[in-house]
Amino acid sequence: MAVRKPRYSKEEAARRGTDIYERRVRQQVEGYAHGKVVAIDIETGAFEVAEDTLAASDRLLGRYPDAEIWFVRVGYPGLHRFGHRPAASRT
User: Fold this and answer.
1) What is the reported pLDDT for 90?
2) Rounded to 5 degrees, what angle do the CA atoms 40, 54, 12 make?
3) Rounded-to-integer distance, Cα 40 and Cα 72, Å
4) Cα separation of 72 and 56, whole Å?
5) How far apart are CA 81 and CA 78, in angstroms?
6) Cα distance between residue 43 and residue 90, in whole Å
7) Alpha-carbon torsion 69, 75, 77, 81, what sign?
8) pLDDT of the residue at 33
9) DSSP per-residue string spanning the chain
């Protein structure tokens, strides 16, 4: 299997992915996909929704084998969380 190299800088991929999500995808997925992952092809605007990045990218690559993918988690500012998550209060 050949190693894929990005065709865009990180900044350009982020700009394109965010723009497509805000303009075309967000209103389609917000009502039913809170917390799910959206994989967006930043060249075609095609997207797939799944529980995780692997499932979303596999589906998108199945349709668009040369997709340049940007990921978004519906309803959250970031895709992944880093660091300790405080325990919920038990009162």
Assistant:
1) 47
2) 35
3) 8
4) 10
5) 7
6) 47
7) negative
8) 96
9) -PPP--SS-HHHHHHHHHHHIIIIIHHHHTTT-TT-EEEEETTT--EEEESSHHHHHHHHHHH-TT--EEEEETTSS-SS--S--PPPP--
Q: pTM for the whole thing?
A: 0.83
Question: Which tokens sit at 30?
Answer: 């917000």
Q: Centre a 10 Å sphere on the Cβ of residue 46 and count the other Cβ atoms it contains.
A: 16
The count of other CB atoms within 10 Å of the CB of residue 49 is 19
82 vs 39, 73, 78, 88, 89, CA distance in Å? 20, 15, 10, 17, 20
